[in-house]
Amino acid sequence: MTRFATGLIPVCAAALVLAGCSSAPPVNAGAPKGAKERKKAPDFALKDSTGQTVRLSDYKGKVVLLNFWATWCGPCKIEIPWFMEFEQKYKDRGFAVLGVAMDDEGWEIVKPYVERLKVNYRVMVATEEVDNAYGGVESLPTSYVIDRDGNVASRHVGLVSRSIYEQEIENLLESGRGKK
Amino acid sequence: MERSSRARLLLAALACGTTLLAQSAGVVTVAPPPKLTARRGAEAEATIRVQLRDGYHVNSHTPSEDYLIPLRLTWSGGPLEVAGIVYPKPVLEKYSFSPKPISVFTRDFDIVTRFRTPANAPGGPAILAGKLRYQACNHNSCLPPKTVEFRLSVSVQ
Questions:
Q1: Domain chopping of chain B, boundaries
Q2: Are strands B57-59 and B36-38 parallel, antiparallel or unpaired?
Q3: Residue B123 CA: distances (Å) to CA of A163, B41, B43, B44, B113
Q4: Which end of chain A is more exposed for a tag (fewer CB within 10 A), N or C?
Q5: Domain enclosing residue A72, as ranges
Q6: Which pLDDT does position A31 carry in this prediction?
Q7: Cβ separation B140–A71 shorter than 8 A
Q8: Is A10 a domain residue?
């Protein structure tokens, strides 16, 4: 084997490793963290479909379900009606759903979609900054359940059962009673 | 290390990296198509082998739901014209997130492109740039649409 070819092997091996690492398999981070273990959810400021700025920090004192989704994502499509029901059912107890769409085409494709589904919670379009702040959201859906102090209680990657969300929301609403 | 050796290694790294990374994006890899010999005034076929990571599927070129992004192979550059692209027959698969079965590819598969070489095409070597756009999911989550880029070497005779 020539020196040139020998030199190529480690380079190609590194390239293969990098290529293999480019898309980590989805992981369901699942189980909610205890209040003391929780970390602050990164704040953001994004425009909703009406042009109003939505800041996560504006929701301090509420339990928030922050859902990253896209119009081309089948599992996301299953969850949206659940989240609409949660919004309706729990909003008076200090709960809100925030949807962040990851579609590259932006509002052009997102707005008609949310209008067609009559989504009743606030939806924004992601920016690269928000994507990075949340660690680079690759697999969709990815959802964060955030407590009344703005800390991440749980993160779910991929479709999980509706009852898991409901239980987590109920627990956080109960545990934070009086904080509203 | 001698300067010339370092330079050769750098060139090798660039060549290798470009080739490997250009042909793989996310969970899909396109095996480099073999060199194609195209005769003026005739048709020639090129087959690309698409490899899919285990556990994932990609939407077919004819997705069964309007919100799904189709698989799409496109070519540009070079003197050849695309006469037709033949995708394999998709399968209808049921997933937990789809009320109805959806049209997908679940394993490695081939896509055949029929090229037509114009009678006045200049002879000699040419390069065509291929792009395969796809959107993949597994049983409970989806990855953003991606494009794999690759090249086809052609000899026009």
A1: 3-156
A2: unpaired
A3: 66, 12, 15, 15, 20
A4: N
A5: 27-175
A6: 65
A7: no
A8: no
Q: Is residue A74 part of a domain?
A: yes
In a domain, A169, yes or no: yes
Q: What is the token pair recorded at A86?
A: 């949660």
A76 Rama class: left (phi>0) / alpha (psi -120 to 50) / beta: alpha
Report the top-level CATH class of B3-156.
mainly beta
Q: Which residues pair with A62 in a beta bridge?
A: none
With CA atoms as reference, the chain A residue closest to B5 would be A4
Q: Token pair for residue A67?
A: 């859902």
Calculated CA dihedral for residues B25, B31, B32, B34, nearest 10 degrees: -160
The model's pTM: 0.81
User: What single DSSP character describes residue A57?
Assistant: G
Cα separation, B69 vs B79, in Å, equals: 29
* Counted domains in chain A: 1
Q: What is the pLDDT of residues A108-142, one digit of tens each?
A: 999 999 999 999 999 999 999 999 999 999 999 99
3 state SS of A95: strand
* CATH number where A86 lies: 3.40.30.10
- Asked whether the beta carbons of residue A4 and residue B26 sit closer than 8 angstroms, the reply is no
Q: What pLDDT digit, counting tens, does each position of B127-152 carry?
A: 999 999 999 999 999 999 999 999 99
A157 lies in a domain? Answer: yes
Which position has the token pair 């390239």? A15
Question: For B83-129, how does the pLDDT look when each residue is reduced to its tens digit (9 = 90+)?
Answer: 999 999 999 999 988 889 999 999 999 999 999 999 999 999 999 99
Instruction: Please tell me the distance in Å from A44's CA to the nearest CA on chain B.
Output: 22
Q: What are the two backbone dihedrals, phi and then psi, of residue A12, each rounded to the nearest 5 degrees?
A: -65, -40
